[in-house]
Design goal:
Elements lengths: L1 E9 L2 E7 L4 E6 L5 H11 L15 E9 L5 H8 L8 E9 L4 E5 L2 E3 L1 H11 E4 L1 H6 L3 H12 L2 H47 L6 H13 L1 H15 L7 H16 L6 H27 L4 H21 L3 H67 L6 E12 L2 E10 L7 E2 H4 L2 H15 L7 E5 L7 H14 L4 E5 L3 H4 L4 E10 L2 E8 L2 H13 L4 H12 L1
Parallel strand pairs: 3-13, 3-14, 8-12, 12-13
Antiparallel strand pairs: 1-2, 1-4, 4-5, 5-6, 6-7, 9-10, 10-11, 14-15
Length: 551
């Protein structure tokens, strides 16, 4: 409940303090006196956006602060606990500072918070019914919000919205995967072709260099053969000219000589070793000569193989090792594409599961809305009769539609203000006064389950007067038994029913305009009610005002 509101340097208000009590209170004043300014100041406390032009001319900043009390285990206490803003005394202080530069500071229980946090808390503290809200009631979205507030718990709508958001995210993910899949189909064909080309070659690291050396040797085979034959001939020729024959002769001579001088034995042994090594080289050269024999087909095969390797290196290289690495990379990409197909299938299954869950939650929302609509219709009709619309009919249409973030239905409020008329949309058939009474009827129905303690009605009397105004006053007074009700009004019938009465006035002091608010005592109330009745303070108006206040 709002206990106190303080405003400083806000538009025409220099400084004011408003102490509020329980029950039904009214705020009255001449047109342009500052009632809407006061409402704007309260809006800042509830988290509305601030503009720099609200700061009073010549001042550096505007300050609005409020003190609320709240019940234990209420939505307000839960919010404060969740955001670590609770106060042990069960009190809630809010301060809003707006600098002339346009910068705004929001403070809850001494802790700075974002405007969005304050706005969320504000919706739990005060329910504002204004002419703007009346206009929102003409739109389907506004009508849906009213029906949902009556029919659904916040958990039910949250479950649906979570399911809807999850479904949309999965849809977007799946669309992205499929688009990527289509994009990659051409890539897969190309990757498959390149991979087959590389894998078919059965590449071996260093093979190209070995082949190149082999072909160079083949090209020089005739020269190599001639030189090798010559070398072998010199090593192992005839008995007189070959190196081995000459070694045999030398060894024989040393053996003979060693018989006379044993020191020559070592030389003959070393020559024996040299002979064995030369014989081995000679045999190896013979084998080498055998290897120099190549067929034309073998030469062509090796040339073709080297050409293939050169082609692959040019295409995927520059080195053969790069080609081999490219093949490994392509294989990994192809495996990833196959895994990508599996991911698409997985998300398709997830989406189907999400759609089933969403359909279940949507059916629950639709069912609750249908039941809530029938019950709310009866409540509204009962209240409309009490507000002087005895012959009105009121119907809430709940039609299934394409699933959206707000649920599966189109909601339409239909009314016929008079007997025999065809029901039609509020926007087409309801006058301003009828719309105000429909709004009040809805508020009365919603407050049965509404946890918001403070209800603010701005211009609830728009378009009404006489007996109808008295009916509206009675309903506001009835609401005041369970809630703190604040009404800004121009009608004496409504003002006279209030427990507390505040008047807003405007004055000019030293060339500047100021708005003030005063808590009226009994005599001052008589004078204000008289003004509301006839615009003057004539005796007859004053007597009429006294009679109204005695009821």
């Amino acid at each position: 409940m709002l206990e106190r509101l303080e405003v400083k340097n806000y538009v025409l208000i220099s400084s004011l303090t408003l102490e509020m009590g329980k029950g039904f209170s009214v705020i009255t004043g001449e047109t342009g006196s500052g009632k809407s300014i006061l409402l704007g100041a309260l809006g800042l406390i509830l988290g509305e956006k601030a503009k720099a032009d609200i700061v009073r001319e010549g001042e550096k900043e505007a300050l609005v602060s409020a003190l609320f009390t709240y019940e234990k285990n209420s939505a307000v206490e839960n919010f404060l606990t969740e955001h670590e803003l609770e106060d042990e005394e069960g009190e809630l202080s809010i301060q809003r500072i707006v600098r002339a530069s346009g910068r705004s500071i929001c403070n809850i229980n001494g802790i700075n918070v974002t405007r969005e946090t304050l706005e969320e808390l504000g919706s739990l503290l005060v329910d504002v019914s204004s002419q703007h809200e009346h206009q929102s009631l003409l739109k389907s979205e506004g009508q849906r919000r009213v029906l949902d507030a009556y029919s659904l718990s916040s958990d039910e709508m949250k479950r649906y919205q979570d399911a809807y958001r999850n479904m949309k995210e999965l849809e977007e993910k799946l669309q992205s995967l499929k688009a990527e899949q289509e994009k990659r189909e051409g890539e897969i064909d190309y990757i498959t072709f390149c991979l087959k080309e590389i894998e078919k070659a059965n590449l071996v690291p260093g093979e190209d260099e070995a082949l190149s050396d082999e072909l160079k040797r083949i090209e020089a085979s005739e020269f190599l053969a001639n030189e090798t034959v010559q070398a072998q001939s010199l090593l192992k020729g005839d008995m007189e000219r070959g190196a081995i024959s000459l070694l045999d002769s030398a060894i024989s001579s040393l053996i003979k000589a060693s018989k006379k001088d044993s020191s020559l034995n070592d030389y003959s042994s070393r020559l024996e070793s040299a002979k064995i090594e030369i014989e081995d080289i000679s045999d190896s050269l013979r084998d080498y000569l055998s290897s120099l024999t190549f067929s034309e087909s073998e030469l062509e095969e090796k040339s073709s193989r080297l050409a293939l390797l050169q082609k692959l290196k040019k295409k995927y290289g520059p080195l053969l090792e790069n080609v081999i690495e490219k093949g490994e990379k392509l294989r990994a990409e192809l495996d990833a594409y196959e895994s990508f197909d599996g991911e698409t299938s997985l998300y398709e299954k997830k989406l189907q599961d999400a759609i089933r869950l969403l359909d279940k939650e949507a059916e629950n929302i639709h069912s609750k809305r249908e039941k809530g609509a029938r019950k709310l219709e009866k409540e509204v009709l009962k209240n409309l009769k009490l507000l002087g619309m005895e012959n009105a009919s009121f119907h809430i249409s709940v039609e299934k539609a394409k699933l959206g973030s707000s649920g599966p239905d189109n909601i339409t409020f239909l009314i016929a203000a008079n007997k025999g008329e065809k029901e039609g949309s509020l926007s087409l058939v309801a006058s301003g006064g009828e719309l105000s009474r429909v709004m009040l009827s809805l508020k009365c129905a919603l407050t049965v389950s509404d946890e918001v303690d403070t209800l603010l009605f701005d211009e609830v009397d728009a378009g009404i007067g006489g007996q109808i105004a008295s009916c509206v006053a009675e309903r506001l007074e009835e609401l005041g038994k369970d809630h703190q009700v604040i009404a800004i009004t121009h009608l004496a019938q409504i003002a006279s029913r209030a427990v507390e009465h505040f008047a807003v006035t405007k004055s000019v002091e030293k060339g500047r305009t100021f708005s003030h608010i005063t808590h009226l005592d009994s005599d001052e109330r008589v004078t204000e009610i008289a003004r509301l009745l006839s615009g003057d303070k004539e005796k007859i108006s004053l007597e009429h005002a006294k009679l109204m206040l005695k009821r």
